[in-house]
Amino acid sequence: METTIKSLAAQPYDKLQIAKVTKTPALEILSISLEKGTEFPEHTSPTDAHLIVLEGSIDFHIDDEPLHLEKYQYYAFPKASPHWVKVRENSKFLIVR
After folding, report:
1. 5 versus 77: which is more confidently predicted?
2. Handedness of CA 57, 21, 39, 77 (dihedral sign)
3. Of the candidates 95, 4, 1, which has an alpha carbon nearest to the alpha carbon of residue 48?
4. What was the pLDDT predicted at 9?
5. Quick one: pLDDT band at residue 2, thresholds 50, 70, 90?
6. How many angstroms from the chain centroid is the CA of residue 13?
7. Predicted local confidence at residue 10, as pLDDT
C-alpha cells in the first residue's frame, strides 16, 4: 500500500509499508517500513536507484547475492535488476530514484 507521508518517524512497522515522500518529474523518494520477519517481494526499479537504511538491519538480495546493510549504510543499484529485501529487525529505508 503506497501512501504519502509528512514524517518518516510516524511511519508504522506493520508488515510492509510503502510511503511516497516526494515525487517530481526528475526525482522520487519512497520510504519503506518493514516489520521484523517481513519480506519485500522480488521486483525491479524503473530507474537507477539508491537505498539508504534509516533504521534497523536488512538483507538486500540482488543478482542472487545477499548484501547485509545496517543503519546509515547506502547502496546504489541499476534499473531493471531483480531484487528483494528481508529484514532482521524492524527497519526503515529510503529509495531515491
Report:
1. 77
2. negative
3. 95
4. 84
5. low
6. 13
7. 85
For residues 55 and 12, the answer to whether their CB atoms sit within 8 Å is no
User: pTM value?
Assistant: 0.89
**Which cell goes with 24?**
517530481
Q: How far apart are CA 72 and CA 81, in angstroms?
A: 23
**In a 3-state reduction of DSSP, which class is residue 9?**
helix
Sheet strand arrangement including 65-70: 39-43, 83-87, 57-62, 65-70
Strands 2-4 and 16-23: parallel
Tell me the residue type at 81. S
Q: What are 6-41's pLDDT values in tens digits?
A: 678 889 999 999 999 999 999 999 999 999 999 999
Q: What CA–CA distance (Å, rounded) separates 49 from 86?
A: 18
| DSSP structure class, residue 89 | S
The number of helices, as runs of H, and strands, as runs of E, in the chain is 0, 10
